[in-house]
Design a protein that fits this description.
about 375 residues, alpha/beta, QueA-like, Thrombin, subunit H, 2 domains, nine-stranded mixed beta sheet, six-stranded antiparallel barrel
Length: about 375
């Protein structure tokens, strides 16, 4: 298929620059994929579409302040560092996807600078230059470097003080303290547990304790998996044919209780309801590795690219945000609901002035 087949027109005014005033009040477009019927609801109405026979699966990864803005130590000029993944202890070029502990001091990072970077250069951050980053060696990938952090105090403390929440590039920020405080709270799910993401699993941003309580009162069980979202989630598809695009690896973990619950749900004829594309990618990756499509517990890294006419092995329905034109994510939802129905639904969402992308409204595909 051609990448151009997944383009749609989107007015810039509909790209959400801030979250809803109150979490859990976002609009929700419901698409029935068997009939193409569309309903206009709110996220709290999700309880009307999920039954006690179904299973809700969420991604409990936690975003950390992975974006650093500073200056070069020896020459004028601003530099931006995006921490992607902890470097392995064996010194190889493959990042350590499984352990993004903020106690680690060597990381694979994307460096943004107006000047050519060289080995040994040092960037400094913080009002008192308490944190330094030395460029160790260039890696494969545009702007990717192995970086050694030099800290006066624990790295996690310094990031907490003057690191920035890595909101997507289409969310324009002036860098004020008020914006950063808001992003620290709202660009994070309420159930985030395991640190390691540089982008939030945004479909989960809409949930509140009250919505979860309503689902639990109905008898709906919830389990968690973990997939650490990397910057590749925003990487555009530049290939003319979508089959020529390659996804970046992202680390995942599926606990035993989640695997058991998913297999039990499928066996009894219930639906596995995935919250977000990262949850879908994790479960479909694991199921593809087993001969019978069962989900097994374990950890690994996923580079699965889901696009039509992919046949889903685990995911039956999906809560997701509205995605960028020609992105891998709009291709994924097209595989689940059909390209024509997705593009028609998006056109309707534009007409009804839904808010798009990470801080926007959501879509439930049932």
């Amino acid at each position: 298929m051609k990448t151009s087949q997944f383009w749609y027109p989107l007015p810039a005014r509909l790209i959400a620059q801030h979250p809803a005033e109150r979490r859990g009040t976002e609009r929700m477009l419901v698409l029935h994929r068997d009939t193409g019927v569309v309903e206009h609801k709110h996220i709290a109405d999700i309880t009307d579409y999920i039954t006690a026979n179904d299973l809700l699966v969420v991604n409990d990864t936690k975003v950390f302040p992975a974006r650093l803005i500073g200056t070069w130590e020896d020459t004028p000029g601003e530099v931006e560092v995006l921490m992607v993944a902890a470097a392995p202890v064996d010194g190889s070029d493959m990042p350590s996807f499984a352990d993004n502990s903020l106690d680690r001091l060597e990381w694979n990072c994307i460096i943004g600078s107006g000047r050519k970077c060289r080995e040994g250069q040092i960037a400094v951050f913080g009002p008192n230059r308490e944190l330094k980053a030395r460029l160790v060696k260039p890696l494969r990938g545009i702007g990717m470097w192995r970086v050694e952090f030099i800290c006066s105090r624990p790295l996690s403390d310094l990031l907490d003080e003057f690191g920035h929440t890595p909101v997507p590039p289409y969310v324009k920020r002036e860098g004020t303290a008020e914006e950063e405080r808001a992003d620290r709270e709202r660009y994070q799910t309420i159930y985030a547990r395991h640190t390691g993401s540089v982008a939030a699993p945004t479909a989960g941003l809409h949930f509140t304790p009250e919505i979860f309580a309503s689902l639990e009162a109905k008898g709906v069980r919830r389990v968690s998996i973990t997939l650490h979202v990397g910057p590749g989630t925003f990487r555009p598809v530049k290939a003319e044919n979508i089959e020529d695009h390659h996804m970046d690896f992202e680390a995942f973990t599926v606990p035993q209780d989640a695997a058991d619950a998913i297999n039990e749900c499928k066996a009894r004829g219930g639906r596995v309801c995935c919250v977000g594309s990262t949850t879908v990618r994790t479960l479909e990756t694991v199921a593809a590795s087993t001969p019978d499509g069962r989900v097994v517990a374990g950890s690994g890294a996923s580079d699965i690219f889901i696009y039509p006419p992919y046949e889903f092995k685990v995911c039956d329905c999906m809560l997701t945000n509205f995605h960028l034109p020609q992105s891998t994510l709009v291709m994924m939802v097209s595989a689940l609901a059909g390209r024509e129905r997705i593009l028609c639904s998006y056109a309707l969402a534009v007409q009804k002035e839904y808010k798009f992308f990470s801080y926007g409204d959501c879509m439930l595909i049932v």
